[in-house]
Amino acid sequence: MRPDGTGKVKHYYVRESVGIAVGILLASLTHVGLATLTHTPSPMGFLADILGRPENERAYVVIPVGYAAADATVPDITRKSLDEVLVEIPGA
Q: To bridge 57 with a disulfide, which of 11, 26, 46, 53 should be the other Cys (CB 3.0-4.6 Å)?
């Protein structure tokens, strides 16, 4: 609904915009030393009920944030080399 209570307003690319914003937020939180987890339960309607949000608002993601436990470990992940992931199509 519009602020004056009449009609509906179409918002384009909401999920894409939320995805970009979440990526920036996660990178920023990680940069300052916080641990994060993204959670996208389906259906998400329970959250609107718990938080008392209006029907026109929709949650897309829940992001718990905090400090990792002192004994938490992160897997040693390395990128594959270009030769391992590149597929060349002759004549393309």
A: 53
